[in-house]
Amino acid sequence: MQIKREEKRNGAVFRIVSDLNIMLLGLTGAGKSASGNTILGGDRKTLEERNYFTSETKICAPAHTVVDGQTITVIDTVGLSDTAVKITDVQTQIEQIMQNTPLDVFLLVIKLGETKEKREPVKWIQENFGAKVLKRTIVLFTHGDELGVSIEDHLGECQTLWSVVDQCSGAFHVFNNKDEDRTQVTELLEKIEFLRRTNGYRRYTEQDFKKTQKDLWLKKCDIFIVAIALGAAAVILAGAALRGGEGVLGGADVLRAAGVGEAATMMASVAPRTGPAALLGAAGGAALLAVAACAGLYFLARKYLSRENDKSD
Q: Is 0.90 surpassed by the pTM of this model?
């Protein structure tokens, strides 16, 4: 990555990179678009400001400006609480944008005084970008004109907000989007530059996003397959109890063949070993087949994604 110049500010040397890519995240109505327009500056309202989004609204809207010779790209996103937009559509558009615009920093926009659950956006970021991206995230509070005390004092009085800041990079800033004073933007850019420097100027790329999506998908599959295995075990054990407790061993063998070893061991340990094997009921047999099929598909998918991860690495 080419470094454009170095500047000395307050005794510290900052390396100014030729461009800066910012993504705005937050709940609907938090002030993302207004904050984006404040960063972009000028009289224009490049990013459409609304209190809500419809399905026709662009999920991700990029805009550009130049500040002191540095090109800044601001990417506005749909509200994280917007149920009218499918999460898969959001993920697809984010991936498309990152093909040409790797991200330097995420701004988690939170409206001061908002009564909605403030931890929800952090959870969304973790579930879609991965926990590591939080170290690239600055919390940007809006409606600073309504703040009667300093932001530090306010955070000290609100443990929930401080917890959100702490889960991210620890950096935060306040915007008054009604104020045309560019000082607040300059101070934010300095904080962003410091965070980039701390992260070694490494950007969050399309490859990072894809890998995170694969890892999160595998994690969900782990939970899903265990849930199915436990459900099948419950059905089989209930059927065995009605039939005298026999036939569980056969079910354990099927589970073991499907790759669900722990569930099979548990079933075998509790199964009576006397008398002829009893036939499993229709419900138990169907449950076993479901576990076997899901486990087979799961392990095939794991093998495929592991190969893809090896190629990307």
A: no
pLDDT tens digits, one per residue of 5-27: 555 556 665 555 569 999 999 98
Selection from 275, 265, 282 nearest residue 244 by Cα: 275
How do residues 191-221 score in pLDDT, each as one tens digit? 999 999 999 999 999 899 888 888 877 777 7
Beta bridge partners, 282, equal none
For domain 20-204, the CATH architecture is: 3-Layer(aba) Sandwich (3.40)
Q: Where are the domains of the chain?
A: 20-204, 209-241+250-263+282-310
CA distance 125 to 154: 24
Per-residue b/e over 86-119, b at no fewer than 16 CB within 10 Å? Answer: eeeebbebbeebbeebbbbbbbbbbbbebeeebe
3-state secondary structure of 292: helix
Q: Which of 23, 28, 24, 180 shows the shortest CA–CA distance to 111?
A: 28
Q: Which two tokens stand for residue 120?
A: 């929800």
Distance of alpha carbon 218 from alpha carbon 215, whole angstroms: 5
What residue has token string 């400006």? 65
The string of DSSP codes covering 45-83 is --SPP-SS--TTS-SEEEEEEEETTEEEEEEEE--TT-T
